[in-house]
Amino acid sequence: MSIVIAGATGQLGRLVVKELLNRGVPAAHIVAAGRSAGQLAELAGHGVHTASVDYNDPASVESALAEGDTLLLISGNDIQSRAAQHENVIDAAARAKVARILYTSVLAADTTPVILAPDHVKAEAYIRASGLPYTLLRNGWYTENYADALLAARETGTLLGSAGKGRVASATRADYAAAIAAVLTTAGHDNSTYELSGDYAWTYEELASAFSAVLGRTVSYRPVSAAEHVSALEAAGLDPATAGFLAALDGNIREDALALTTGDLARLAGRPTTPLVDGLRPLAG
Hints:
Elements (H helix, E strand, L loop, with lengths): L2 E4 L4 H12 L7 E5 L2 H8 L4 E4 L5 H6 L6 E4 L8 H15 L3 E7 L10 H14 L3 E6 L7 H10 L1 E4 L5 E2 L4 H13 L6 E5 L5 E2 H12 L4 E4 L2 H10 L4 H15 L9 H6 L6 H5 L5
Helix pairs in contact: 1-7, 4-5, 9-10
């Protein structure tokens, strides 16, 4: 029986594989499944098994699974298609009779106003209906999501946003990977839901201060309205749909949709989550 990581070639998936190896899971018991041939080859270099898997192709998913396996389904990033993609993977897991399925959802999925939530709510319901033992890993925000903003602030000295005084309990992908690996390698998580987020919820004023510390220059937060935010993003070269999406996310933050702190992430990872400044430093290049 193996631990199968679906989405192993993504940023989070690669970290989960490495975390499993660091925890002493034999490489022969890990299957890294994903689409990127280059990343699969890199992971194979660690001794793990690999499988070419496309969420649009249920047969490719099922071929990577065996009865009794544990499957980690890392949610897809194709916003237009991922609801159907998730169902493809879950159906394949049920046909293969995996022992349990873990799914990376979104923080407070069933109550949050976050615009990303509906697809995750559908996936969670589909998993429950599958009859498979499950664990829902409701991931909060990644500190790495601010990489582009950090680099822009290096040039401008400004963090522009429409998040107001909303708070974000972010953590690094490595924090999330440590918690996920713990759930994959220990018992007692069947039919459980974990709300995973950083230990501290910070404001954009604090984010600007963290940018200042990392960059060695003063960075100021410039709060703007949602409409002004969209206009600024479009002026920076983003298409209207992307600009609107990013401004909507800041609107969710303004409503404190990403401020929830439960301690689940630190407890599962076995350590405090990475402080904001420390999480940002590797992003400065």
